[in-house]
Amino acid sequence: MKILVTGGAGFIGSHLVEALVEKKHRVFVVDNLSSGFKKNVNPKAKFFRADLTNHKKIEVIIKKEKPEIIFHLAAQIDVRKSVADPVFDARSNILASVNLVNLAHQYKVKKFIFSSTGGAIYGDTESRPTGEKEPEWPLSPYGIAKLTIDKFLFYYHEVHGLNFVSLRYGNVYGPRQNPHGEAGVVAIFLNKMLNGDQPIINGSGKQTRDYVYVGDVVNANLLAFKNFKKSGIYNVGTGKETDVNQLFREINRHFGKKFKESHGPAKMGEQKTSCLSFAKIRKDFGWTPSVNFDTGIKKTFEWFRNNS
């Protein structure tokens, strides 16, 4: 099939593009390279350097290429940047995405698969692992933007018949994650430690996250595509909480415990807990996480060591 992957030069997107190319689909990528890299894009995929906020240019590309499926992964991914500049975040993550959804409807795309977020949408919840029916109380403009697109997709499905799946990810990690900026603590720690620098844990380090390996996330996207007629919102996580101190210790094992556990000031407003139930996606798509935390960290460490 003819498939568009937005953000296909990025961390998750480039792995997804590879998987789709391997399955002999005709893939084209739209990416502005703000956080992705052209070298990440499989050479068998067609590449357009374009920003989704340029609505007219995006329409020209879609009108010309006629995708049957859209995987929408492109986003402004820095939660703290969204807090500092919510207007910029809304332009990047709401208006650009609504335009893309509307174009999908206009040009009769068969399915729209959206990369959303779990933790940033649900906020701190007492019910963990958190299911999709939990009330959504995002504590950042980034989370608000993702939730907004979920609502727009529901509208386009109910009113216009657009098939969609929104995948609410836990904290995704793995090879190719960009270690610069605020997103991706695994990549940030590994990059620092491989350069001989001491990583700093924010606050007590008892903040928990649900760390899910990038290969499992790609598989969730492929199953959302394969189960063509199913529409809805699905969590993609492991159902396990890991705090930052545990994460640091697991990474430090690969350095012979060379680094000490060093704490800095807590970040204001940082979410305390996040853990997602995958019961719904297991029931509907047969998805379960296959890479455990220790194995995933080892694979990620080896990739960073070989590519730093």
Keywords:
308 residues, alpha/beta, Rossmann fold, UDP-galactose 4-epimerase, domain 1, 2 domains, 7-stranded parallel β-sheet, two-stranded parallel sheet, 11 helices, 42% helix, globular
In the CATH scheme, the class of the largest domain would be Alpha Beta
Order of helices and strands: EHEEHEHHEHHEEHEEEHEEHEHH
Q: What is the CATH superfamily classification of the largest domain?
A: NAD(P)-binding Rossmann-like Domain
Fraction in helix: 40-55%
CATH topology of the largest domain: Rossmann fold
Description:
Helices cover 42% and strands 17% of the residues. It has 308 residues and is α/β, with parallel strands linked by helices. It folds into 2 domains: 2-172 and 211-236 and 276-285, NAD(P)-binding Rossmann-like Domain (Rossmann fold), CATH 3.40.50.720; 177-208 and 241-275 and 293-307, Alpha-Beta Complex (UDP-galactose 4-epimerase, domain 1), CATH 3.90.25.10. The strands form 4 sheets. The chain has a 7-stranded parallel β-sheet with strand order 3-2-1-4-5-6-11, with helices on both faces. A two-stranded parallel ribbon has the order 7-10. Strand 1 (2-6), helix 1 (11-22) and strand 2 form a beta-alpha-beta unit. Helix 2 runs parallel beside helix 4. The chain is globular, with a radius of gyration of 19 Å. The two termini are 35 Å apart. The mean pLDDT is 95.
